[in-house]
Structure formats: C-alpha cells, structure tokens
Amino acid sequence: MTSTELPEYPEKIDSAVLKIAGVVVLGSIMSILDITVVNVALPTFMTDLNVQNYSTVAWTVTAYTLALATVIPLTGWAADRFGTKRLYLLALALFTAGSVLCAAAQSIEALIAFRVVQGLGGGMLMPLGMTILTRAAGPQRMGRLMAILGVPMLLGPILGPILGGWLIDHATWHWIFLINLPLGVAALVYSWVVLPKDTPQPGESFDFLGMLMMSPGLALFLYGVSSIPDEGTMAAPKVWATMLAGGLLVLAFIAYSFKPQHPLLDLRLFRNYNLSISTLTMFLFAAAFFGGLLLVPTYFQQVRMETPFDAGLLVAPQGIGAMLTMPIAGALVDRFPVGRIVPVGLALICAGMFGLTRVEADTSYPYLIGVLFVMGLGMGATMMPLMTSALRTLANHEVARGSTLLNITQQVASSVGVAIISVVLTNQQKSSDAVSAARALAEAERTGEQPPSAVLQYVQSVGDQFEKLVSQEAAAAFAHSFWIAFALCVVTFVATLFLPKKREASHLLDDEGKPPVVIH
C-alpha cells in the first residue's frame, strides 16, 4: 500500500476494533464521571476543608474546566509530535495521579491545584480517544461505534452524582477520587496491550505564546470575580487588579490570534456566520445551564438537609431527560435546520430554570423532579445540534479548528458561569443575618469555641423561629441565584432566534469522503 492509499476496513465491526473501543469507553467513563461526581460533593468540601464561601469551593469545578480548555488545543499537536498511544497513556497517568493527589488533599487550595493536574489529563482523553477510534474503525463504521461511545456520555450525568453521593455517605469524599486509581491502572494496562503502536508525524507548530496569554488571563479574571465575596467590594486590589490583569491578557490574546499562521484559537473562523452565532449561543447556554445546575445538589443538601446520595438521586431526572432527547435531536438535525430545533430546547431550559427561581424551603419534590426533567429534555435537544450547526458549513480544512474553538468556548463558558453564579449565591448567603449566624454557630461547634456574643444575641432575639428563618433565607439565596441563570437563559433563547432556519449544504466530509474527527 502506498502512502497515498487509504487503508481497507472490513464492513463488520470486528473484535480488534471493539477492543480499541473498550479502551476509549473506559477513558471516557473516567473523564465524564469525574466532571459530574464532584458537583454533589461541594457542600462536603465546605464542611470538611473548613471553607467559608461557596464561591471558593466552586473553584474545584472551575479549575478543572479551565484545565480542560487549556489542554484541548494542545492535544492535536502533541498527538502528531509524540504519537497517539504514548499521549493517551500519558493522559491516563496524569488523570490517575491527579485523582490520587486530590484524595490526599488536606486543604481547599491543594484540592484546587490537584484538580488542575486531573483536568490536564482528563481533557486529553476524549479527543485522543476519538482520534484513535477513527483511525482504527474508518469512516463507514464510525456511526455504529459512536452509539457505543454515547453510552458514557448519556449515563455520566445520571450515575455521576449518585455514585459520588453513595461514596460520600458510605465512606468519605476522598473515595470519589480514589475510585479512579483501580480504573486508571486497569485502563493503562489495557491501553498498553490493545492500542497499536503509531509513528509520530510532527506537523504544525504549536502556539505556546497564545496559550501563555489565554490560560493565565482567564484564570486571573475569574479569580478576581470569585474574590468579591471575601473582599466585600470590587474596589479591593485583589479583585480589580486581578480582573484587570486577566482582562488585558485575554484582550492581548485576541489581538495576537490574528497574526500566527496556526494560532491557538483561529478567531478568523468567526467570519462564518453560522459558526459565530452558534458559538455565541453555546457560550451563553453553557454559562447559564452549567452555572445554574451546579447549585441544585447544594440546594438539596444545605436547604433540604438531604444526604449526598439522596441529592444525587434527586438530580438524576435531569440526566434521564437529556438521555431521551439527545438521540432524537441527533436524528432531527439531519432533516431540519438547527434554527427550528435549538429554540425548542432552549425554551424547555428557560421553563425549567424559571421553575427553579420559585424554590422555597419546602418546595414539593415532585415539582423539583419535574423541573429538572424538563431542563434535561432541553439540554439534550440543544448541545449536539448547536455543535453540528457550527461545523456544518465550514470548509473541509477548517472543521478541526472550528471543533477546537467550539469545545474551548464550552469549557470557558462553564467556568465563567460557575464562577459568577457561585459568587451571587455567596453574596446572598452573606447578606442574610440568619444564614451567617447559623454558620457561625456551626463553626463554633466544630472548633469548640464560644460563638460571638452578637450571634448569640441575634439567635435569642429570633427565638424559636431561628431554624425556620435560616431555611427560608437559605432557599431565597438559591432562588435569587437561579434568577441570574434564568436571565442568561432568556438571552440565550434570543440568540437562538438568529440561528439558520434553512437547510444549508454540509461540508462535513473531507476530500477523501471521510468525516473529520470532532473533539468533544
């Protein structure tokens, strides 16, 4: 076979391809479960690691997603430079080592730092897995194999919170990370044996300067935002100086990105209308949906006093809703323009998020479960059609860069949404005398010290109504935060109205008739 000939692939899915698919599914399960399993653990982190503000503990999520955003554009270059098998083994090792370090963390600062290590490994697993599987299976069999890969994507949001809650209830929070050790070792051995050797083929140069501007810029800006509750004002140097430094770095990155031949993010692609409006919609959607959804398990634990396991069970309807509509939306997107599909999904999300703005200390569980299920239905009808719309009209050679741009946008938007909405929640909680007094009493009990006299006087003045007042004002803090997420959802819905409402020709095949690898 000459270098220009394509390898021949059998029509049936043989055992060799299934073995490689097993490697990719195992890596996907580790990565996706870890994203969802931590959400239910945030109240436990606050208690066990003595964290005062929710906005601080939310950095265990923000740091991970920022690490994902950093490593996604690096993956393609590194795979060509070092080979996919070597890089996949390195990603597994990084993720597993990061998980063990997270389990050993003794402070919230250490946990956040180790989550970055974990994210650097986890961020490479999915795109590398897709590349490995595409090379092994060929274009004609990818559709059937994607159904296999879709299993962890659909089950992760359902099983992650339940598994995390069960481990916290029956062991400790450390086990939500330690469970990755046997999985990681098994995946390393399995990958070493099953994955074929490949020869590195260095290609494009990597934009290290762009990465050194984008990643620290985003981290500094979001750190400044999340410091607002601690400082109490935006006038504090810790807030405005870091936000300014981060903002300037991001602006410098945007200006610089139009100069290199192979920039970290090819912003020139925004000349394409479909990509621009889809990316804007994706950014707003991810910020609103993932930022708001993060609060739900915490509401169940802090306001309704549910165990982490029960909180995980209660948020499962959202994942079930997404599991129902995602395959339907995937089938419809080939028959109808995305501008007819995504607004329906966003309308469902808006309805669900509005339902969450009505939460109180005693809101009925059937109501909450119904609201989360509706949001899940909307989520399943939104994400994949948006991705498809953005990439469909790009030229062949632009698709890989467009996919990278979209996925980084999603991760960055999730980080921004989590940071902003967690700051809103923290400020609302700190503005409540009842919630602040309850926390002061809990801290005094933990340390064995006498509560401040002002707190005791406040509790005495409220009398028997104290506990009820704490629950009511804590619920009101969550409801207020959900209003921010709802407002973002409404803005996102407006953006969906500008999505294309006519079928357009697809360019999602390359010059050899093969679909490109889309990084997720």
- Sheet-strand content, in percent, reads under 5%
**Helix amount:** over 70%
The largest sheet is: none
CATH homologous superfamily assignment of the largest domain: MFS general substrate transporter like domains
Helix/sheet category: mainly alpha
Query: With helices defined by DSSP (H or I, 4 residues minimum), what is the helix count?
Result: 22
The figure for the number of domains is 2
Q: What ranges have pLDDT less than 50 throughout 5 or more consecutive residues?
A: 1-6, 508-520
Order of helices and strands: HHHHHHHHHHHHHHHHHHHHHH
Subcellular location: Cell membrane
Family: Belongs to the major facilitator superfamily. EmrB family.
Membrane topology: Multi-pass membrane protein
Main location: membrane
